[in-house]
Amino acid sequence: MKKIWYIYIKDFKRIVENKVALVTVLILCTIPSLYAWINIKACWDPYSNTGNLPVAVVNDDRGTSLEGKDINVGAKIIEELKKDNSISWQFVDQWQGNYGVNEGKYYALIEIPSDFSSSLATLVTLNPKKPDIIYRANEKANAIATKITAVVKDKLTKKITTNFVQTVNKEAFTFLNSLGGELQTNKAEIFQIRDAMNYTSENIDKTIKLINDSTDHAVSLENYLYKVKNTLPVLSNQIENLQSATVSGKELIGITQSALNSLLTNCKNNVMEIQVINSKNQMLIAELKNINNSSIRNQLKEKSSEYSSNLNKMDKISNGAMTYYGVIDSLKSGKDISKIVNKLDKNNELVKAQRNILNSISKSIDSGAPSKDINGLLDSLSQVSNEVTANLIQLSNSFYSEGVSAVNITSNKIMDKSSMANNILEGTKIIIPQLNALASFGIASTEVASKQAGDTATKLQKFQSSLNELNNKTKGINEDSINNMISIMGKNPESISNFIASPIDVKEEEVYKGGVFGVGITPFYTVLAIWVGVLLASTILSTEFKGLENIEGATLIHEHFGKMLIFLTISLIQGIIISIGDVFILGVVPESLGLFMFMTILTSIVFTVIIFTLDSVLGNVGKAIAVIIMVIQIAGAGGLYPIQTNPKFFQIVNPYLPFTYSILGFREAIAGPQIHNTVVDILILLLLGFGFFLLILFKKPFHKLLHFFHGEFKKAGL
C-alpha cells in the first residue's frame, strides 16, 4: 500500500512542480464541464421559442352558405392564427408558400383549399364530406422542427372541428328553444285535436251501425235513409274539422319529431353526466385511501360526504333518464328498449350499493375502526364503481342500437299514419255526395241503395281503422310528456353546445417535478461529460510510472493502482465542477442535492475504473474500446429517447451499460428519489465497475505483448 501511495504522491508533486503540466491538468479538469454546460444550455427550453419557427399559411377558401348565412371558415382561421404567437405564421399565396418550403425558407406549409367551408358545411347534411387541410413539411430543414409543426397542425384541425360542432349545435338548440315556446303556446290546441279525433271515431261507429242495420233490414231502409240524410251535414262538418285537425297534427308531428331528437340528445347527455360523476368518485376513492393511510379521520369524513353528494347527483340524473326512456317506451315504436331501462335500473342498484358501503365506512370512522378495515370497505367501493363504469359503457351501446331506432320508427309511423288519415278524409268527402244521392233516390231503388250503403260502410271501416291507430299513437301525449318535451327544448344552447363539442376536459398532473427540457437532459450530458473527461485524461496522461524500476519491490500492480489514483483525483475534480455548474450556473434544482453529488462521485469512480483499466491493460486498444463503449451508450442508455423507441440491439444491451444506471441515479436525485430504485441503480453500477476492475488480472500477461505493439507502433513513425 505504501508503494501505491508513493507513486500517487510522486506523480502529484510532478504535476504541481511543472507549470506546463499543471496548466494542462487544470484545462483537462474544466473541458468536460464546458462540454456538458454548453449542450445542456443549448437545449434548455427549445419549445418556448417555437414562436420563431416560420410556417407558411395559404388560404384559398371561397366560403359557402349555411342556413342562409355566408360563412368562410378559412378567413376565420386566419384571424385566429394572427392572434397566435406559438408559431411564426407567414400568410402568403400558394406559389410563395410552395417555393418557400422547397427553398427552406419555411419549415412547413398549411394550405386551406377552396372547398374547405363547403365541405365542412356538409357535416350537417345526410351526405357529409370530410374537409381537407393540406400539410407539407420540409423534412430536409430540421427533423425536430417538422415534428413540432405536425403537432401544431393536429391541434389546429382539432380546434377547427370543435368550434364548428359547437356553433352548429348552438344554432340547433336555439331553434329548439323557439319550438319549445310554440309548443307551450299551442299545448291546449294539441289536446283539442286529440279529443276531436276520439269524438270522430265514436260517431263513425254509430254511422257504420246504421248502415249495417239498413242492409240487414231492407224493410226499414227508407226510414234509415232519411236519418242518414239528416246525419250527413253533421258528418261533413266533422270531416272538415278533422281535416283541419290533421293539418294541425302534421305541424305537431314536425314539432314532436324535433322534440324526440332533442330527447335523444338529453338522454345521451345524462349518460355522459353519470360517467363524469363516476370518474370523480373513482378519484375520490383514491383520495379516501390516501387520507385513510394518513389517519386524518376528519378529512376522511368530509370526502365521504362529498362522495355521497355525487351519488345523489348520479341518482337524480339516472331517474331523469328513466323518465325520458319512459316517454320513448310509451310511444310503442315496436322497438324493444328494455335493455336500456334494465341498465338504468342496474345503475340505481349500484348507486344504492355504494351508499350502503359509505354508511359502513362512516360507522367504522365513528367507532374508530383500524385503517385496514376501512381500506377493505374502500376496495369494495372501488369495485362497485368499476361495475358502474362497465354498466355505463353497455348503456351507451344500447342507447345507439335501441333508443335511436325506437324514436326513428315512431316518428316515421306517426308521419305515415297522418298522411293516410288525410287521404282517407279526402276519400270520405267524395263519398258524402253519393250518400246524399242515395238518400234522395233510396225509396225507389232500395236494392241499389243497399249496395252503395255496403260500399260506404266498408270505406268508413277502413277510415276508422286508420283513425283508431292514430288515436293509439297519440294516447301518450299528455300534460307530463308535453312538459318534458318543453323542458328538453328549453336547455341553454351555449352550455349544451359547449358540452357536445368538448365533453371531456383532461386535467394534467405532474407526478415528479420535471421543469424545462434542459433539466430533463441534464443527467445524460452530465454522465457523458464525466466519461469524456476520463477518456481525455487517458489520451493525455500516461498509465506508466517513470522510474518504477527504482522503487524496491514495486510491481505492475502497484504501478496500476498508483496511477489510477491520479486519474481518479482528476475525474472527481471534473465531476464536481460539472455538478456544481449544473446547479449554480445552469439553475438545475435537484430534489436531493446530496444524492446528486453522491451520484457524481460514484459515477466518476466507476468510469475511472473502467476506462483506466482498459487503457492500463490493453493500451491504445483499450482506449479504442472505451470510445466504442461510449458510442454505444449514447444511443443505448435511453438518455434522450425512451429505450423502447430504439432498435432492438440497443434494447438488448441497455441493461449492461454503465450509462443506464448513472443516468437513472441522477434522474432520481433531480425529480425525487424512490429509495428502492436508487439502491438498485447504485448496486448495479458498482457491480459493472467491479467487473472491469477484475481485468487487472490480465495486467501482467498482457504487459509484454502491449510493449511489443507499442514498440512496433513507434517504428511506424506515426
TrEMBL record:
GO molecular function: ABC-type transporter activity
Domain of life assignment: Bacteria
Membrane topology of this protein: Multi-pass membrane protein
Transmembrane stretches, start-end: 20-38, 524-543, 564-587, 593-612, 624-643, 649-666, 678-698
Domain ABC-2 type transporter transmembrane: 560-669
Cell location: Membrane
Cellular component annotations (GO), alphabetically ordered: membrane
Keywords assigned by UniProt, alphabetized: Membrane, Transmembrane, Transmembrane helix
Keyword DNA-binding (UniProt): no
Chief subcellular location: membrane
Matching PANTHER family: TRANSPORT PERMEASE PROTEIN, TRANSPORT PERMEASE YVFS-RELATED
The name this protein goes by in its record: YhgE/Pip domain-containing protein
